[in-house]
């Protein structure tokens, strides 16, 4: 199965309820990312057309793109974790036998999950601080704390994803980068 086929028909490698939760989160992330990118493109193009055709920019366009960038970034970290697309430095990891790689991947996934939950906590503290200050976006009039709600949601989803990756590695004989991606390298050389 190619990467494109996997992304279109993502099914979790986890059994039972965990698999259902993982697949549901995957679908929600895909919708959020697609809608965010499309809305950002539409907003930017509309603003450029308005500027050149009517001589005026849309006053809230920059703020809307700011909101969408935050949304895409923090929805995207969970997506990247789910598809095993984060940057890895694997010199020591690659030198280990399969059992050692699996143990190391469990430790990495659990540690990363803990870091994500730690960041989740501090992002909530930050949002509560913003809430207490009562600041609003100048053009849209939205309270600033609302645009940052994507941050804890992204950390929560990513923390859960890494936790599920650790579970998958505990319950499997293979080494998994995520619940559906088996560790390994693709042959990227082509014949001439």
UniProtKB/TrEMBL annotation:
One GO molecular-function annotation for this sequence? transmembrane transporter activity
- In its keyword annotation, does this UniProt entry include Mitochondrion? no
Q: Where is the Tripartite ATP-independent periplasmic transporters DctQ component domain?
A: 40-170
Enumerate the UniProt keywords alphabetically: Cell inner membrane, Cell membrane, Membrane, Transmembrane, Transmembrane helix, Transport
Transmembrane residues, as ranges? 31-54, 66-82, 103-124, 144-164
InterPro entries reported for this sequence:
DctQ, TRAP_DctQ
Membrane topology, as annotated, equals: Multi-pass membrane protein
Identify the domain of life. Answer: Bacteria
On whether Membrane is a keyword of this UniProt record, the answer is: yes
Localization, per the record, is: Cell inner membrane
GO-annotated biological processes? C4-dicarboxylate transport
Write out the GO cellular component annotations.
plasma membrane
Which Pfam family, any one, appears in the UniProt record?
DctQ
Q: How does it assemble?
A: The complex comprises the extracytoplasmic solute receptor protein and the two transmembrane proteins.
Function recorded in the entry: Part of the tripartite ATP-independent periplasmic (TRAP) transport system.
Similarity remark: Belongs to the TRAP transporter small permease family.
Q: What is this protein called?
A: TRAP transporter small permease protein
């Amino acid at each position: 199965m190619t990467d494109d086929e996997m992304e279109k028909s993502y099914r979790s490698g986890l059994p039972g309820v965990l698999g259902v939760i993982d697949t549901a989160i995957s679908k929600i992330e895909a919708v959020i990312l697609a809608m965010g990118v499309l809305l950002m493109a539409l907003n930017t193009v509309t603003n450029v057309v308005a500027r050149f055709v009517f001589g005026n920019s849309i006053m809230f366009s920059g703020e809307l793109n700011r909101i969408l960038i935050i949304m895409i970034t923090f929805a995207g970290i969970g997506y990247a974790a789910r598809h095993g697309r984060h940057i890895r430095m694997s010199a020591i990891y690659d030198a280990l036998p399969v059992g050692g790689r699996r143990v190391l991947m469990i430790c990495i996934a659990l540690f990363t999950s803990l870091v994500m939950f730690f960041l989740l906590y501090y992002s909530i503290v930050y949002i509560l601080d913003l809430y207490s200050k009562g600041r609003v976006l100048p053009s849209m009039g939205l309270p600033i704390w609302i645009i940052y709600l994507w941050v804890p949601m992204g950390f929560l989803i990513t923390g859960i994803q890494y936790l599920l990756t650790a579970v998958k590695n505990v319950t499997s004989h293979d080494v998994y980068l995520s619940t559906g991606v088996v560790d390994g390298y693709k042959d990227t050389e082509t014949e001439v």
